[in-house]
Each structure stands twice: as C-alpha cells, then as structure tokens.
Amino acid sequence: MNTPTSLLEPSTAVCEIARLSRDARFDGVFFTAVLSTRIYCRPVCPARPPKPENVVYYPSAAAAQAQGFRPCLRCRPELAPGNQLWQQGEHLVSRGLKLINEGYLADHSLEMLAERLDIGARQLRRLFVKHLGAPPMAVHATQRLLFAKQLLSETSLSITDVAMASGFGSLRRFNAAFAEANHAQPRDFRRSPKARADKALVLRLGYRPPYDFSALLGFLQTRALPGIEQVQAHSYQRVFATGDAPGWLRVSAWPGEQHALQLELLNVPPSQMLGVVTRIRRMFDLDADPLAIAHTLNASPLLAPLVERYPGLRLPGGWDGFEVAVRAVLGQQVSVAAARTLASRIVHRYGIAIESPAGVGLDCLFPGPEQLAEADLGQMGITQARIDTIKGIARALIEGRVDFAVEQPLQTFIQRWVQLPGIGEWTAHYIAMRVLKHPDAFPAADLILRREANPRDAPLSTRALQALAESWRPWRAYSVMYLWRAATDSAAARKEST
User: Fold this and answer.
1) CA 169 to CA 351: how far, in whole Å?
2) Taking burial as the number of CB atoms within 10 A of a residue's CB, which of 91, 110, 122, 495 is the most buried?
3) Which of 54-63, 90-99, 133-142 has the lowest mean pLDDT?
4) Which parts of 248-335 fold into alpha helices (H)?
C-alpha cells in the first residue's frame, strides 16, 4: 500500500488521514492492522486510534488475515463494502474476483479458476498476492469466514446452518477454520436478535457514502412488474426462485444512518444465502466507489455539474439476466411505461404462479428461457420482430451461445450478443449495464444520451458521443445514469412550467 498506483490504491499518507478522520469514503478500500493487538479494523472503527508506529495497512481483509490478524469486534470488517481497485475493468484480478464473489471456488479448484481465465494457476496466484496481498483461496476463505461471522452476530441460524450458508461442507472444518481466524469458537459470537413473526432473516449491507438510495428506488419503481416486484417510497421487495422453492426479499435503508441497507430474507435455504446476498449487493451497487467515479467524471465540463447535483448516484442492476434481456428488447424504441406493460402481459400469461406468504402480495416468478422459447406471444401487442428476438435469446441461452457470466470482458459479451437477430449495440450494452454491472458499458446510440450531450443544439451522432465519452472510461455506465437523470429532471421541469 506504500506505492500508490491510482486514486483507488491510496498511499500510506492518505490511509493515515482517512483512518484518523474515520472517513467512510475509504471504508473497504483498505484495512488497518494493529501490531500490538493483532486485530485489523475498518477505517471507520470507533475505537481509539492506535499509534502510527503500531499500524500496518492492507488492501484487503484477506491480506490482513493471511498475516495472522483477526477481525475487530467493534467495527466488524464483515460489514465493509468491497474494494473496487480490482473489481472493475478487464484486469485478470478483477475477473477472478467476480468469479470468487459468485462462489466459484466453493465447487472448483484454483486450477479450474485459472483455466477459465485463460492463465496459469501460478501466475494467477502471483497477481492476487501482488494486488490484494493474498492468494485466491485465501480471499475466498476470508469471504466465507466474514460472512459466517455476520450470520452468527445478526441471525439466529444454527451453527450448522451458518457453516452451510458460508460454504463449508463440514461443520468440523468450519469450526476449525473459524477458530483459527478469530481466536474464538463460533458459539462465542452468538447474539440474540429479536424474533420476527415472519421468521425473516435480517442482515446489514454496508456501502460507501454518498449513496442515493431514493434515486435507485425511483429507477426500479418505474420498471417494477406487478406480482414479482413491489417498490415503495423506502423499500424494494421481490420474489425469486431458490432451487425448487420461492424466496422473498426486502431491501430498505438501515435505521440510524449507518451507511448501510437492511436486507430481509424469507424462505432462503442456507446453501443459497451467500449467493443471494452477493446478487443483492451487485443489484444495488453497494461496492461502488463514488470518490473514484467522481474523480474521473468531474474532469468533464458536461458531467461535473451533474456529479455535484446528484451525489451518490448508482448503477441499478437487475435480479435476473433473462428477465432484463427480455425487457430490454421490449423497451426498444418505446417508453419505459410501454415496455413495462408488455412485460406484465408476458408475466400474466406465462409467469409461474406461487403461493405468497400472508401480507407479501408477490406471487409470481418471471418465466425462464424454457417457458418462452416456444411460447405463443401473439395477441399481446408485441411486434413479430421482437417476438422472434425474445425467442432467439431464449434458445441461445439454452444452447449456451450466450450467457451472463460476470467475469467475461465487455467486448466479448457485446460481440456474442449482437450476433443474435434483433440485438444491436444499444440492447447489448444496456444488458451489460443491468446484468453484468459492467461500469464501462455505454449504449452510445441512445437518443437521450445524444441529446443531453449537446443540449443546446442537435443531438450528437453516435460516433461523436463515443469520442466524447472516451475520457469517461472506465465509468461510462455511470455517465449514462447522470445523463438520464438530468433528462428526467429537465422533462419534469418543462411539464411543470406548462
């Protein structure tokens, strides 16, 4: 950490200032390890700051744990947002981390991970140690153990269920690994959360401020599908498939302004819990680094005023890739409201009905590729060209010609998807934004973007906008959100003035 390579890899001096001021913008960007106590902390730790000579900075929790430090009980490193230094872009470490976060190493070896990334296992390990301070297996193990620590602290799950939820196939191995990392047994971390009548699990999901939760909810609200999603002023609810049974979730702000969201889960098997939490973090963009994004976009005279006007704007994700793809096709050259109406008709006819818990009101699953590949989508107001495109996507997914693998490079994803009939650059980039959550996806053909990029004259051409946006890399997807937000507010202002 002593040699800065970018804003996202702060120098020791920057780390020192951040920890002494408890700057939440650096939460998860680095961790503070204290030599005298052998404990590592988040920069926001409320404990009395240790002397500088007793402090060592690490770029990841895994690096600190690899050196024998144990997580702090006060600031709880398991609540820190992810480090974006190597989670963005096309770097091999970035792509490897995405797979690890998806749980790939729970069922695959390091060699298989390396093969998927088209690199040797030794080289992949070397890169992880160089940039994260720990090899891939250690990063994976730390992720599992920190998640287990959170479950022990915040839920009433049995220790056996906690072991399963955190990816351990053996209770004995879990107990041994946990005790080694924390210098205490799992039972020592048990708490007694208040019991809920609906038996939902409640977890805290941290983020770096600023975070405009209201804006993200507003984006999702205009697109929410009845029976599947419900968006209110302060929360998002959804039903989803968890194996052979449905599960439900609700996301809201954590009480008390603690830079966190509250996730409530109902009917989620322990074995799928980490995957669900990972997907929610991605959907709500909880690991984004607004400081780094603003640093790049503020260099643009066009975007700088928008970054200042809309602090904490995030990139909203989608829960299911196929659902987002279908809705993207339905939204080609029509309004958001019209696309939502068409999607609702598909759900009404082909959605999978389920029994909803009392008071939830979410009783339908979006149909999968198997249901829509041969479905009769006529008489719904959908053009035949778009029907053919939707069916083509469904068959391509079934056959494996395209997929939503999070680690694939953006250009690879775009090239594969534009080969499908009816899928152009705009649709492919939009899907990459919402599903892959690729920060540099950029639907340059979008008319609203081209208008907002040149508000006092004719819309820019697609090529001209692409040229203008070169300096916005690697955060072009966030520029889309700023420009769309500006367009929405301008339209609302014009409507009020008439």
Assistant:
1) 34
2) 110
3) 90-99
4) 270-283, 290-297, 304-309, 321-330
pLDDT at 493: 85
Among the listed residues 377, 412, 411, 414, the one whose alpha carbon sits nearest the alpha carbon of residue 394: 377
Rounded Cα distance between 475 and 207, Å, is 18
Lowest mean pLDDT across 158-172, 191-205, 282-296: 191-205
Residue 8's pLDDT is 52
Q: Which domains does the chain have, with CATH numbers?
A: 12-74 (3.40.10.10), 87-189 (1.10.10.60), 199-277 (3.30.310.20), 278-492 (1.10.340.30)
pLDDT of residue 134: 95
Q: Which single residue is written with the structure tokens 């992880």? A: 128
Residues 360, 199: Cα–Cα separation, whole Å: 13
Rounded to 5 degrees, what are φ and ψ at 406? -70, -20
Mean pLDDT (the chain) is 93
CB atoms within 10 A of CB 66: 19
In degrees and rounded to multiples of 5, residue 232 shows phi and psi of -110, -175
The question of whether 75 is a catalytic residue gets the answer no
Average pLDDT over residues 44-71: 95
Place of tokens 């049974």: 245
Going by C-beta distance under 8 Å and a sequence separation of 6 or more, which residues neighbour residue 85? 6, 8, 9, 29, 59, 131
Closest CA to 154 of 273, 247, 63, 44: 273
Q: With pLDDT > 70 as the criterion, what percentage of the chain qualifies? A: 96
DSSP for 27-89, written as a single string: BTTBEEEETTTTEEE-TT--SPPPPGGGEEEESSHHHHHHTT-EE-TTT-GGGSPPPGGGTST
Query: Closest by alpha carbon to 29, among 69, 66, 71, 77?
Result: 77
**168/181 Cα distance (integer angstroms):** 15
- 3-class DSSP state for residue 352? strand
pTM: 0.94
Per annotation, catalytic residue among 15, 41, 45, 75: 41
- Is residue 446 flagged as an active site residue? yes
- Residue pLDDT, tens place only, 331-346: 998 999 999 999 999 9
For residue 269, the SS3 value is coil
